[in-house]
Amino acid sequence: MAFRAKQGMFNGGYPRLGYDIDYENKCHAVNESEVPLSKEVFETYLNKGSLNETEKLLIQLAELRFLITAK
Question: Rounded distance, CA 17 to CA 31, Å?
Answer without folding.
Answer: 8
